[in-house]
Amino acid sequence: MSKNYSRAIHWFRRDLRLTDNTALEASLQESDQVIPFYLLSNWTKEHLWTGPKRQQFLCECLESLAKNIKHLGGSLILRQGDALEELGKLAKESNADAIFLNQDVDPFGKETEQALSRLCDELGIAFHSFKDAALHGPDEVLKGDGSPYRVYTPYSKPWLALEKAKPKGKPRSIATPAGLASEKLPSLDTWNLKLDGMETLPGGEKAARARMKAAVSERIETYEKYRDVPSAPGTSRLSQDLRWGTISVRELFHRAKECRSQQYLKELAWREFYFTILHHFPEVLELEFNKDWRGLPWDEPDEKFEAWKKGQTGFPIIDAGIRELLATGFMHNRVRMVVAMFLTKDLHIDWRLGEQFFMQHLVDGEIAANNGGWQWSAGTGADAAPYFRIQNPWSQTKSHDAKGLYIRKWVPELADVPEKALLAPPENGQPIAPGYVIPIVDHSHERLLTLARFKKHREEQR
Ligand SMILES: Cc1cc2nc3c(=O)[nH]c(=O)nc-3n(C[C@H](O)[C@H](O)[C@H](O)COP(=O)(O)OP(=O)(O)OC[C@H]3O[C@@H](n4cnc5c(N)ncnc54)[C@H](O)[C@@H]3O)c2cc1C
To answer: How remote is the CA of residue 438 from the centroid of ligand 1, in Å?
Structure first.
């Protein structure tokens, strides 16, 4: 049967896999030949929204993707520069008659899609875009009056109830036209970056699928019990794979559903709740979601912010979290909340600075979830913790790391201190252990300052 197109470009972006890839599958069905394409960004200095670990992970994902495509007979074409320029050039050079892609979930990617669709019109070629990164798009789960939900629980109910698409398989072959020039696979040198800290999890579809299988067989059934224990391997550790698309969320959802952990499925709903918030309220990238808190004063970043960034605050749970992040590019969710709340409520530093710092270090850095998590912790976001509910880092340690297993792993200075020394501020202004910092603030005092600051701001708005 003849196909609609003779040559199509599939533009890989946050869908770096062959299995159950919606747009790739469609391009292969509709076109005789497919050009698998990836565009390398050409910035070469420190980037506000990414860093060495994230880029290293990306390099490994691309290496694996190129290998897998080759195995099916095709070849991954890499170019570097501006997306529209490079895609326009490639379309002309290759006589492509269509461009396929999976839709992005953040405003920057969406803007490029709109511009690309216009370019395709100008070039007289077809443009096809597909939902792939989420189970439900931002307009699929809306209130009765058609407006978006602003609160998670009422969003999650229809989200969970909606039928979910089933995953498809993997293509059998890819025929790529010969003779197209390609950049070589990137390395950190491409962006003048150097890796620091320990190694991160390996990138690529094979490694991601192994992690997914391990999560399904070992972690998801007991997820509810261990998800809040940062020292346990209690969560799925799949966030970087969902971010880069090395696994399909459809496949993960259906596999996880078999484990009967409703709590785990609800986490996937949080991910899509934040996609929906970012889609309908893109201003959250600049402003507080809750208008009541816009213009709330924050302190200038000072030496305390520097101490926080190094994991040198004298609060063991905070320092352990930041050191885990610096070493591995990951931080446990419970600790992310405590660390973010500490920056905003104990140090009174603007959540936007913490948001940016996380994006530069997290391998799973996802604009929507990161913004949502930071605004939640700051008390300014959609369905956020109310400003007066301020987590106490010492009692959070007692609830989630009472034996200090997580803390001792990441803060070796505290390896030999008794458990109870990790659960309350040290007395007499002495450090908890030789060589460890004295707490840089008094939590009880800073808590009162935060309450007063939020209250004053609210009164001034009236
Ligand atoms: C301040 C802050 C910043 C965060 N930044 C990010 C980020 O940049 N990228 C990111 O993927 N997650 C972020 N999160 C959410 C959460 O911490 C991570 O998704 C989770 O720790 C990843 O580990 P896991 O894959 O083992 O998660 P699991 O607990 O196994 O959860 C399964 C999946 O559900 C999703 N998920 C779980 N919790 C959340 C949540 N609260 N919000 C959105 N999605 C969720 C993730 O995709 C995750 O992989 C942030 C949370 C906070 C408090």
So the answer is: 31
